[in-house]
Structures are given as structure tokens and as C-alpha cells.
Inverse folding.
């Protein structure tokens, strides 16, 4: 069985005006195009409360890095009190958008030996432990750093997008 280590977990929160559909597309495109992840939407649920709605979304993304390492990210959106609003931008143009509270959480997991090449016997499992501890230690650290960079960059870009969208 592949070895999984959760390396990164963080979240951002934002309250205010933003385009939900624009943010959704931005996050998906960043993860697939810039990050190189294959994204699957595990959950999408909406709960309507009068003129607003609460939305829960869960994504799972994977990216094969080498024959031995694979990255897995889990992204959770929690949107509360999402309403349709009309705002007048600084150039005087009225625009329909959304207002609400959003929490975006990402968890990054490093998967080692995802193909299970070292799983055929107890000796090979022991050999993998030795291999990872003494031979591959710096490579594992490098992969962990790369995964942390991916997750941090994603959150920074998402936060910047929300901040810019609210200031238009």
C-alpha cells in the first residue's frame, strides 16, 4: 500500500463581494493549468435559506510527479449567505455579482510508492523503509517542499483574486 503523509493544511476566509462563478473557474483553472492537477469534484451541495444559499464543494486533485511520488490535494469551499447583488463599479457600470462569506481550505498529501512496487513481500517493505530513510531522504524533502509551494501558491492566488474582485 502506498505511503501517504499529509504535508500541508491551511485555509483562507473572505467576506464581501465576489463573483462565485468567476472564483470557482479561477480556482479550477489554476489547479488544472498552472498546477497540473487532475481534479474530481467529490461534493457539490446547495442549501437555500430565503434569498441566500450555503454551498459546500469538495475537490480532490492528483498529480503524478515521478514513478514513485504523487501529489494529492483536497480543496474544500464553504460559502455561507451567498446572495445576488448589483454593484456600481468605479467606472459607473452596474454589474450583477455575489456577496457572502467564503472559506477555502486546502490539504496537501505526498504519496510515496503509489504504484505499490515495494508491496510484494515483507522484505521489500523493509527495503523501502531503508531506501526512504537513508537514500531518498533529500528527494522526499524536496518533494514535500514542492507540494507546500503548490498549496501556498494556490491559496495566495485565490486570496489575491478575492481581494481584487472586491475592490473593482
Amino acid at each position: 500500500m502506498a505511503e501517504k503523509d499529509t504535508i500541508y493544511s491551511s485555509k483562507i476566509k473572505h467576506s464581501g463581494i465576489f463573483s462565485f462563478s468567476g472564483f470557482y473557474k479561477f480556482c479550477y483553472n489554476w489547479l488544472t493549468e498552472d498546477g497540473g492537477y487532475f481534479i474530481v469534484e467529490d461534493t457539490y451541495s446547495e442549501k437555500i435559506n430565503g434569498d441566500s444559499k450555503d454551498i459546500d464543494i469538495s475537490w480532490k486533485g492528483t498529480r503524478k510527479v515521478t514513478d514513485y511520488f504523487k501529489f494529492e490535494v483536497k480543496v474544500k469551499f464553504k460559502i455561507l449567505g451567498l446572495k445576488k447583488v448589483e454593484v456600481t463599479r468605479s467606472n459607473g457600470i452596474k454589474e450583477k455579482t455575489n456577496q457572502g462569506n467564503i472559506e477555502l481550505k486546502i490539504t496537501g498529501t505526498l504519496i510515496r510508492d503509489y504504484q505499490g512496487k515495494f508491496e510484494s513481500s515483507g522484505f521489500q517493505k523493509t527495503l523501502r523503509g531503508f531506501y526512504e530513510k537513508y537514500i531518498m531522504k533529500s528527494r522526499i524533502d524536496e518533494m514535500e517542499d514542492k507540494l507546500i509551494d503548490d498549496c501556498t501558491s494556490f491559496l495566495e492566488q485565490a486570496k489575491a483574486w478575492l481581494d481584487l474582485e472586491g475592490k473593482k
In short: DSSP finds three helices and five strands in the chain.
